[in-house]
Amino acid sequence: MAEAAAVERALGVLTERLDERTAAFLNACVRCGLCADSCHVHLADGDPASTPVAKVERVAKHYRRYHTLLGRVVPGLVGAEDLTDAALQELVAAAFGRCTLCGRCALTCSVGLDPSAVIRFGRTMLLAAGLVPKGILANRDAALETGNNMRLSREDVVETIQWLEEDLRQTLGDPAVRLPVDEAGARVLYVLNPREIKFFPLSISAAGAIFHAAGESWTLTSTDFDITNYGFFAADAEAAGAISAKVIERAEALGVEELVVAECGHGYRTLRWEAPEWLGRAPKVRVVSFVEKMAEYLADGRIRLAPTRNPLPVTLHDPCNLVRNGGVIEEQRVVLRSAAAAFVEMTPNRAENYCCGGGGGLLAASEFAAQRVAAGRIKADQIRATGAKVVTSPCHNCIDQLMELNRHYKLGVEVKTLGEVVADALVPPPPVA
Amino acid sequence: MTLPSLVLFLAFAISLASFVVLRLGLGRRVATPFAPPRASAAAGVRYAFTTAFLPWAKESARQHLTSYVAGIVFHGAVFAALGLLVLSLVHVAPPPGASTVLAVAFAAGLACGLGLLGKRARTAALRAVSTPEDVAANLFVNAVLAAGIAAVLRPALLPVFQLVGAALLLYAPLGKLRHMLFLLTSRRYWGTYFGRRGVRPSPRQAAGPRG
Ligand code: SF4
Ligand code: SF4
Prior knowledge:
The structure holds two protein chains of two kinds.
Chain A: H1 2-16, H2 20-28, H3 40-45, H4 52-67, H5 69-73, H6 75-78, H7 85-97, H8 115-129, H9 134-146, H10 154-172, E1 188-191, H11 194-198, H12 201-214, E2 218-219, H13 230-233, H14 237-254, E3 258-261, H15 265-279, E4 286-289, H16 290-299, E5 313-316, H17 331-339, E6 342-344, H18 369-375, H19 377-386, E7 390-392, H20 396-408, E8 414-416, H21 418-425
Parallel strand pairs in A: 1-2, 1-3, 3-4, 5-6, 5-7, 7-8
Helix pairs in contact in A: 1-8, 2-8, 4-7, 4-8, 7-8, 10-12, 12-21, 14-15, 16-17, 17-21
Chain B: H1 3-24, H2 41-49, H3 59-63, H4 65-89, H5 98-122, H6 124-127, H7 132-153, H8 158-171, H9 179-196
Helix pairs in contact in B: 1-8, 2-9, 4-5, 4-7, 5-7, 7-8
Bound molecules: iron/sulfur cluster (SF4) (2 copies).
One iron/sulfur cluster (SF4) binds next to helix 4 of chain A.
């Protein structure tokens, strides 16, 4: 029976793949429920099944059944349950439909465990059972097969960049501006989210303008440029490692010093923090976020900004993977204070900011679209409370969700990447004599 | 050594050995990270075991101050009771006057323990995740606190306290009370994760613009 085999495979993960950290978390949770109000999904729907602890329990009850004495002998006493096909379906609803793996609950847990790590482990069990949403798997497979999740050909990329370069020269009135591609020996390789090429090319132009103003030696790449990682969302460490390896190896082959990751929260997190663990080695290049790079340029006086060019009040959405799970927290603030006349913080913000609702790969899981938008109500309320007219976020994934929230909740704001806000405020460098 | 003292001593030994076995069999060790740190893992771990316990450190404590205080009082009383059980093995009596303090502390712990149990029963989100053992473990610990009150007010009842305490020690590695060990491992991993990434104790400051 197909279901029985799926259950067996998921059980195999529970037995063989559990590491000390996740097992400690599973044993440490006391079901105190103090994490409940930290989760945007639960705050939005009020459903007891949406609390972080309820999602942890979707894994923990099976852990107790198969890995603890009381769970084996008196399962009813300790709430231990057999893993069944129905239980796996409930785990899908919990680990995908109700969780973006944003990790906010980890900051509030009374014991000091990370519920999102347990829920991610639940996704690994689902991967083995063949129950990861198809949209996430399709993007993972596209990246593995073609080097990017949108299956863009090398020609698509090069043509788009050439067109953007022409356009940027006209916009800036500077024929010296370049969007270099595949230039070995450049100091910086700038890698992208493929959606930028297809749908948001202006964010590439913005980056080009900033690199140009900073006088950076940089290049794009026509292959292996995709910073997104749906292997990560599928909790498929092997695939995630292979996807990240393509980008890191491309940077190493080009001989750059720095791999600058465009505005993508999970792209930064995977390349900066997770890939070295998947690959078993540190990259030979420094992995840095474009946000950090812009802050460095400002600190070094390599770019100058005129905040009056962004006169409307701007608020900032902190991407969970860049901020809470990535540690890039203050740089975007330094940048925004220089780039916008009025920067208004959301409440709460920084590491305690709420997820926009579009994390965890949910934008690719159409079966959960309604839940995703409903869970985004907390973010919409946060935005509305700031009174800002512009919302910026250094993450294309968040930008997609914020644009949808803008339409759905009628927020009446403009949604922009941080690079676009900075590019709008750029004081052009003096022409080269 | 009295029989209850012997039973208590053996319970301590068995409990400790069981915890060691549990800890060693926890799962595959996590490899030393390869990603270069952004900040200090050690600082994160120090934070996890110190400042992170303060009521203003976590949103959950700030929002649920009553539960936070009840939890602190409850756990403080449990540790005091365990300390008293250890002292009873080495025949050290609490100093004069301490009995009243201990009785009050145990009573406060008992009240808080029962209060937390009441909250579990009243709150829908908690009921949804509660198991019979959540109730049993709470009552078990409260029984020890009650026996502790009896023992400090009536020293003749010390053997009862010792036997109830021994039963709790034997039970602890089996059920949710094992969190007393795994909390330590969890916090170490938690502190390492957020410390290395520069999220806790505090974010790395970024230099301001020049020029
Ligand atoms: S990781 Fe985020 S979405 Fe998932 S349970 Fe925790 S707070 Fe909720
Ligand atoms: S706060 Fe931590 S220990 Fe309490 S229920 Fe949530 S995850 Fe479990």
